[in-house]
Design goal:
Largest interface: A-B, 61 and 42 residues
Helix content of chain A: 55-70%
Largest sheet of chain B: none
Shape of chain A: globular
Distance between the termini of chain A: 80 Å
Structural class of chain A: mainly alpha
Largest sheet of chain A: 2 strands, antiparallel
CATH architecture of the largest domain in chain A: Up-down Bundle
Strand order of the largest sheet of chain A: 1-4
CATH class of the largest domain in chain A: Mainly Alpha
Order of helices and strands of chain B: HHHE
Strand content of chain A: under 5%
Helix content of chain B: 55-70%
Order of helices and strands of chain A: EHHHHHEEHHHHHHHHHHHEHHHHHHHHHH
CATH topology of the largest domain in chain A: Cytochrome C Oxidase, Chain A
Oligomer: heterodimer
Radius of gyration of chain A: 26 Å
Number of strands of chain B: 1
Strand content of chain B: 5-15%
CATH superfamily of the largest domain in chain A: Cytochrome c oxidase-like, subunit I domain
Number of helices of chain A: 26
C-alpha cells in the first residue's frame, strides 16, 4: 500500500489547552466565592450581579462547559487525529469551533450575572446562546465525522466510540431540552410545563453529567492512560461491554433526581432501577482504567501524570458508587436537596474531571511544545494539595448533608418535627461551609501551581516548533480486515453504522421515558381547577427566576413525613401544570416555598427581601435591596401572557389585552397594603411588589377565580 | 385523579420490553466479545494509542 504523508493540527489543541487553564481559573474562583457567600452572607455585598443566586449558575456553567468543555476538546482533537492517523478534516472548522465556543462562554459569563436565565440547571443560557451552541456543536460534529471518514486507520479505537456517543447525545439532549418560545431578546418560556418540564430537564441534566462529564472523559482515559503509561488498556473486551452497557443504561437514570416528587411513580421506579444497574458498567470502566496501570505502580509513585490519572479513576469509582446509592429511595429521602449531593458532584467534578484534565495537561503541554515539564516536584505538590482540598471539600459536605438531612426529617414520638425551625439546621452546618471553603482554596492553589509550572514549561520551549510530518498507508477502499473480521470488528470499521447504532441505544431509553409524560394530557382530562398566574404574579415569577431564588429554594413538597409536616400537603402535578419553567429546585439551602403563600403578611416579605435578618435572625439568605429600585416591566406582560396562552395556558382575551393595566391595579393594592412605612417612592412600580404577589400566591389556589380578576392575592 | 392516572400509567410494559431487549442483546454481545478466537484482533486494537504513524521530519 502506498504511504501517505500528513501532519497533525496541534495548534488547535494548544488553543483549547490554554482556554482550559483560563476558564478553569474562573470556574474555581467563582466557586470559591459562592462557597464563601454561603459561609458569610455579607459577601453578597448587596450587589445584584454578585449575589449567590446569580453566581452559582455562572460557577456550574463555567466548570462544566468552559473548563471541562475546553479540556474535552483539547483531548479529543489531540487523540482523534492520532488514532485515525489523519489531520482534522478542516482547520477552518476547528478554528470556528474554538472561537465559537469561547464566544458562547463569554456570553454566558456576561448574561448569567445579569440574570438572563432559564433556571434549568446546566441549561440556564437564554435562547440566542442556545442557538449558537447548536451551530457550534454541529460544526464540531461535522469536523469530527468528516475526519473519521478520511482516516488512515480502519479500526476505530474505543476512545473514539465514546467521542461519537458524546457528540450525538449532547446534540440530542441540547436540542430537545432547549425548545422554548422567546418573549424578548433575553427571555423565553419552555414549551414544556410542570412535570413534563421537570422530567425533560432532568433527563437532560443527568445526561449532561453522563455525556459531557463521563463519556468524553472515559474516551480520554482510554487514550491517555495507555499513552502515559506505555501500556495498552487492560481489557479491550471489557471496554466493548463497558461502552454499550453504559450508553444504554445511563440515558434512563434521570428521574432519580425527582424521587418522592409529583413525577409519576413508574418513571421514578425506572430511574432507580437503571441508576442501580449503572454501577456495573461504571465500575467495569474504572477497573479497566486502574488495571491498565498494573505493573506500573512503581511509576505511579514517582510520575505525577500517572498519579493524577490513578486518583481520577479512583474518584470516578467513588462517585459512581455514591450515585446509585443516592438513587435508592430511602437514601435519597435524606440526601436529596442537601449538601450530600454537592459532595457527590464535587467528588466527580474535582476528582474525576479535574484530575483527569490535570494529568492530561501535564502530559500534553510538554508534548505540544516539544519540551520537558518544568518541574515534576511542583506537579507532585499540586497533586497533594489538590487531593487534600478535594477530601476536605467532600468530607465536610457529606457531614453537612447527612446532618441537615437527618435533622430536617427527624420526628419525635408525638409525631412532631424535632427541629421545626429551618434556620436551626442551617446554623449547625455553617462551620462546615468554612471547611469546604478551605478545601476549595487548596484545590484552587494547586491549580495555580500547575498554571505556573506549565507556563514555565512553555517558556522553556524551543522557538521554532514546526509541525512534524508523519506517514501511514492510505486506507484501501475495500478493507480486507472488514471482510474477514468478526461483526463487531466490522461494525467498528463502519463509522456511520456504528454511530446510528449508538444513537438508537440512547434514543430507546429517551423515547420510552419521556414520551408517555409528554403525551399525558391525551390520557388525563384537562383540569380546570388550576388557575393560571395573574399578570403581576407572572412578572414576580420571572423575577424569582432572574434572581436565582431556585438555587436555594425548592417548590416541591415530597411525599415524605418530614416534608409534609414542615411544609404542608405533598405537591401534586396539577399545581405546577402551568409552570414554565418548572421551579421544583434541586437544593434546599433555604426552606421549600411551594406553600409559602399566605404564611406571612406582605410586610414580612418586604422586610425579609430588603434584609432577611430583620425578620429571621441568623438567616444566611442574601439581601435584595435593589428590588425596591428596579421597575416592573409592565409593558412586556401582554406579550408574555400571549406566549403563555399560545402554549396552552387558559388566559382569556381580556387577560392578555389588559395584562399591563391588571398588573398595575394589583400592584397598587399590595403597595397600599404595605403603606407609607416603607419609605419607597412609587412603590407600586417596583419589582419587590411583583415578587411579593408571586410569593403570596404559592400554594394558594384562588378557587376557580377567573384569571381576569385583578388583585387576587 | 390525574396523579392516580399517571401513577398507573400502562406504558411500563414498553419499558420492561426495552429492558428485556437490552438484556438479550447484552448477553449476545458478552458471549461474542469473550470468544477466544478474537484475541489477536483485540491485541492489535488495544495497541492503537501507542502508535501514531511513522514520524519523518519537521518542516
Amino acid at each position: 500500500m502506498k504511504n501517505e504523508t500528513f501532519s497533525y493540527d496541534d495548534a488547535i489543541v494548544k488553543k483549547f489547552a490554554l482556554a482550559t487553564l483560563v476558564w478553569g481559573g474562573v470556574a474555581f474562583l467563582v466557586g470559591l466565592i459562592a462557597a464563601l457567600q454561603l459561609a458569610d452572607w455579607r459577601l453578597n455585598f448587596g450587589v445584584s450581579w454578585f449575589t449567590f443566586g446569580r453566581l452559582r449558575p455562572l460557577h456550574t456553567n463555567a466548570a462544566v462547559f468552559a473548563f471541562a468543555g475546553n479540556a474535552i476538546f483539547a483531548g479529543i482533537y489531540y487523540s482523534t487525529q492520532r488514532l485515525l492517523k489523519a489531520r482534522m478534516f478542516s482547520d477552518a472548522l476547528s478554528k470556528f469551533h474554538f472561537w465559537g465556543w469561547q464566544a458562547i462562554i463569554a456570553a454566558a459569563a456576561i448574561t448569567l450575572p445579569m440574570g438572563f436565565s432559564q433556571s434549568k440547571e446546566y441549561a440556564e443560557l437564554e435562547w440566542p446562546i442556545d442557538l449558537a451552541i447548536t451551530v457550534v456543536w454541529v460544526v464540531f460534529g461535522v469536523n469530527f465525522f468528516m475526519t473519521l471518514l478520511r482516516r488512515r486507520e480502519r479500526h476505530m479505537y474505543v476512545a473514539l466510540w465514546f467521542y461519537i456517543a458524546t457528540i450525538l447525545t449532547v446534540g440530542v439532549l441540547h436540542v430537545i431540552n432547549s425548545i422554548e418560545i422567546p418573549v424578548g431578546w433575553f427571555q423565553s418560556y419552555p414549551v414544556y410545563a410542570g412535570v413534563q418540564d421537570a422530567l425533560v430537564q432532568w433527563w437532560y441534566g443527568h445526561n449532561a453529567v453522563a455525556f459531557f462529564l463521563t463519556t468524553p472523559f472515559l474516551g480520554l482515559m482510554y487514550y491517555f492512560i495507555p499513552k502515559a503509561s506505555g501500556r495498552p488498556i487492560y481489557s479491550y473486551r471489557l471496554s466493548i461491554v463497558h461502552f454499550w452497557s453504559l450508553v444504554f443504561i445511563y440515558i434512563w437514570a434521570g428521574p432519580h433526581h425527582l424521587l418522592y416528587t409529583a413525577l409519576p411513580d413508574w418513571a421514578q421506579t425506572l430511574g432507580v432501577v437503571f441508576s442501580v444497574m449503572l454501577l456495573a458498567p461504571s465500575w467495569g470502566g474504572m477497573i479497566n482504567g486502574l488495571l491498565t496501570l498494573r505493573g506500573a505502580w512503581d511509576r505511579v509513585r514517582t510520575e505525577p501524570i500517572l498519579k493524577f490519572f490513578a486518583a481520577a479513576v479512583t474518584f470516578y469509582g467513588m462517585a459512581t458508587f455514591e450515585g446509585p446509592l443516592l438513587s435508592i429511595k430511602s437514601v435519597s429521602a435524606i440526601g436529596h436537596y442537601t449538601d450530600w449531593i454537592i459532595a457527590h458532584v464535587h467528588g466527580g467534578a474535582l476528582g474525576w474531571n479535574g484530575f483527569l484534565t490535570f494529568g492530561m495537561l501535564y502530559y500534553l503541554v510538554p508534548k505540544l511544545w516539544k519540551t520537558e515539564l518544568y518541574s515534576k516536584s511542583l506537579a507532585n505538590t499540586h497533586f497533594w494539595i489538590g487531593t487534600v482540598g478535594i477530601l476536605l471539600y467532600i468530607i465536610s459536605m457529606w457531614a453537612s448533608g447527612v446532618t441537615q438531612g437527618l435533622m430536617l426529617q427527624a420526628i419525635d414520638e408525638h409525631g412532631r418535627l424535632v427541629y421545626p425551625d429551618f434556620v436551626e439546621t442551617v446554623l449547625r452546618i455553617v462551620p462546615l461551609f468554612w471547611i469546604r471553603a478551605v478545601g476549595g482554596s487548596l484545590f484552587l492553589t494547586g491549580f495555580l501551581v500547575m498554571c505556573y509550572n506549565l507556563w514555565k514549561t512553555v517558556e522553556s520551549a524551543p522557538a521554532d516548533s514546526k509541525e512534524d510530518v508523519y506517514s501511514a498507508p492510505a486506507l484501501a477502499p475495500v478493507p480486507e480486515t472488514a471482510l474477514g473480521g468478526t461483526w463487531h470488528r466490522r461494525l467498528e470499521a463502519l463509522a456511520p453504522t456504528f454511530s446510528v447504532l449508538t444513537l438508537i441505544a440512547i434514543l430507546v431509553g429517551s423515547v420510552l421515558e419521556i414520551l408517555p409524560t409528554l403525551l399525558m394530557h391525551t390520557y388525563v382530562d384537562s383540569n380546570d381547577k388550576t388557575v393560571p398566574y395573574t399578570a403581576l404574579e407572572l412578572a414576580g415569577r420571572d423575577i424569582y427566576v432572574k434572581e436565582g431564588c431556585y438555587v436555594c429554594h425548592s417548590q416541591m413538597i415530597r411525599q415524605l413525613p418530614g416534608d409534609v409536616l414542615r411544609y404542608g400537603a405533598a405537591s401534586t402535578p396539577e399545581e405546577s401544570m402551568y409552570d414554565r419553567p418548572f421551579q421544583w429546585g434541586s437544593k434546599r439551602t433555604g426552606p421549600d416555598l411551594a406553600r409559602v403563600g399566605g404564611k406571612y403578611p406582605n410586610m414580612w416579605h418586604f422586610r425579609h427581601m430588603i434584609d432577611p435578618r430583620l425578620v429571621t435572625p441568623n438567616s444566611i439568605m442574601p439581601s435584595y435591596p435593589w428590588l425596591t429600585e428596579k421597575k416592573i416591566d409592565f409593558d412586556g406582560l401582554q406579550r408574555k401572557l400571549d406566549v403563555m396562552r399560545s402554549l396552552g395556558v387558559p388566559y382569556g382575551d381580556a387577560d392578555v389585552l389588559y395584562a399591563a393595566s391588571n398588573a398595575r391595579a394589583a400592584a397598587a393594592q399590595i403597595a397600599a397594603d404595605l403603606g407609607t412605612e416603607t419609605g419607597v417612592k412609587d412603590l407600586e412600580t417596583r419589582e419587590i411588589i411583583a415578587l411579593i404577589a408571586y410569593l403570596q400566591r404559592l400554594g394558594v389556589s384562588p378557587k376557580a377565580a377567573p384569571a381576569t380578576q385583578v388583585g387576587s392575592n | 385523579m390525574k396523579s392516580l392516572a399517571l401513577s398507573q400509567f400502562p406504558m411500563i410494559y414498553l419499558s420492561v420490553t426495552a429492558l428485556l431487549v437490552f438484556f438479550v442483546v447484552f448477553c449476545a454481545v458478552l458471549a461474542h466479545v469473550t470468544a477466544k478466537s478474537r484475541d489477536p484482533e483485540f491485541r492489535s486494537a488495544s495497541r492503537l494509542p501507542l502508535e501514531e504513524g511513522q514520524r519523518h521530519e519537521s518542516h
